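Pasting as-is:
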Amino acid sequence: MKKYIFIVLAATFFTANAQNDYTDRDKFKVGINAALPLGDAANFSSFSLGFDVAYQYGVSKSFDIGLASGFTNAFGKTENFTDGTIEIETSFDNIQFLPLAGVFRFYPTVRSRVNFGADLGYAVGISEGNTGGFYYRPILVIDIGRGTEINFSYTGINLDGGSWETATLGLQFAF
């Protein structure tokens, strides 16, 4: 699986170096995000914060490709369990990921302020005991002007024995 992800990322990088007529969409982007955990992730975390970096390259009137990375810290939660007279408090550690992904974006019209697509790759597990896994992030992006974008995404990471899922809201700045 890691070999296929590396091939996709390498192809994305080398394709991005070709000449095109859509250089007005060639952008380096930096952003911040906040997320609420879903599914299994909600058992261990109450929210997460992160940052994103990406480079997007316009390959046609309606399609961009690129590379993305970032860092996410999911804050571990504390749970109290009571069974009659016994009360147990359990605290979970923070969980961190470093995603490495290819970026794919589709623009419905030439001058669209809305685009959608996905980031696909591998999320490296940074925290102890976190091995990481296949990373996918379908995303909807709204350009609010002056190089600023708001994005809504679902982030999923396939882990050994489970998954890590969040609903994410982000703010990104293009340079």
